[in-house]
Amino acid sequence: MKLAFKTFTALNTLALSLGLTHAALALDPATLYQRSSPAVVSISAPDGKASKYGSGFIADPRGFILTNYHVVGKNQRVAVKLANGSIYTGVVVSRSAQVDLALIQIRPKKTLPSLNIQGVPPRVGQKAYAIGDPRGLERSLSDGIISRIDRSGLIQFTATASFGSSGGPLLNEDGQVIGIVQGGNPGTNLNFAIPAAAINSLPGQRGLVAQQRQQIGHYTLASNLQFRQGNYQKMLAILNEGIRRYPNNALLYLNRGTAKTALRDYQGAKSDYSRSIQLQPTSLAYSNRAKVHAILKQQQQALEDFTQAIRINQGWGGSNLGAAFYSRGDLQARLGNTKSAIADFKAAAKFYQKIGNAERYRAALDRITLISTQ
């Protein structure tokens, strides 16, 4: 299965695209459900004269669905009901009784909503959400925490899971899949999920996590190429397609914000940077949004974002951190905050000197001199 601001560079972007980490800002449960539940499906599999029922989720918008092995059994075909009510015949293309996972393929006429898979293991104590069909109640949401992770990676959680929930996604607060619900005991905290990393154990597959990462990297690099060539509309089109397929990826929103900034769609850029920050806050996203705030004459918001960019400083080199101090200093100077401006330019000069950028180092010193003589 095959599966603007020029301060951001291809290296920044690629580094972020490979770092699938849990975000510090979470979605509220209502928003998480609204965005995630359309990708959750109901599954019915023949079981003698009766049928077995379970849940699953769309892991690839072209129609690949993950569920448990014990939901599909040895059947080659199962019935899959989507959130919009459409019913498809699904072909089981891969299965593993050992890890209790199965991969189903359907043939939709158009791409489907899908869920991103989190490559980083969850932590005990973090919030977790399960969406599935407990006792046939389609796409029910329950919440809880991760209560235990054993040596094999099996996840114990407190969100409710019962008959019919098996195969549904266990989500983190960003709506990313951290596990596949295996089952539970109603009225207890003994509910279990298979870790997302186990997906790579399905025979004949290269691993959905790796495939998603590769595909996101493709959109990232292709859009960066268009950016360097000044083809901002083409860059925007590439990122629109990427976000349609991966609606919970922070990096794609960050890049699209840059495309919209270059096209002077500042409100649209601000919205995309905000979404990127919500999914995965980074210094780069805060800094880019700060510059948009400044263009829109929203000076206080710009100051707050520059400050946040400097505070978290995730994955930045000295040049970008120096740029954040310099930009904030420039804004402070325009607002008449002389002491704060000088302090920021001094910090910028320090970073530029450290990385050997003589031109920017001198520019920061010149600004200090200019402000001091006014």
UniProtKB/TrEMBL annotation:
<keyword id="KW-0378">Hydrolase</keyword>
<dbReference type="InterPro" id="IPR011990">
    <property type="entry name" value="TPR-like_helical_dom_sf"/>
</dbReference>
<feature type="repeat" description="TPR">
    <location>
        <begin position="250"/>
        <end position="283"/>
    </location>
</feature>
<dbReference type="InterPro" id="IPR019734">
    <property type="entry name" value="TPR_rpt"/>
</dbReference>
<keyword id="KW-0645">Protease</keyword>
<dbReference type="InterPro" id="IPR043504">
    <property type="entry name" value="Peptidase_S1_PA_chymotrypsin"/>
</dbReference>
<dbReference type="InterPro" id="IPR009003">
    <property type="entry name" value="Peptidase_S1_PA"/>
</dbReference>
<dbReference type="GO" id="GO:0004252">
    <property type="term" value="F:serine-type endopeptidase activity"/>
</dbReference>
<dbReference type="Pfam" id="PF13181">
    <property type="entry name" value="TPR_8"/>
</dbReference>
<feature type="signal peptide">
    <location>
        <begin position="1"/>
        <end position="26"/>
    </location>
</feature>
<dbReference type="GO" id="GO:0006508">
    <property type="term" value="P:proteolysis"/>
</dbReference>
<keyword id="KW-0732">Signal</keyword>
<dbReference type="InterPro" id="IPR001940">
    <property type="entry name" value="Peptidase_S1C"/>
</dbReference>
<protein>
    <submittedName>
        <fullName>Trypsin-like serine protease</fullName>
    </submittedName>
</protein>
<dbReference type="Pfam" id="PF13365">
    <property type="entry name" value="Trypsin_2"/>
</dbReference>
<keyword id="KW-0802">TPR repeat</keyword>
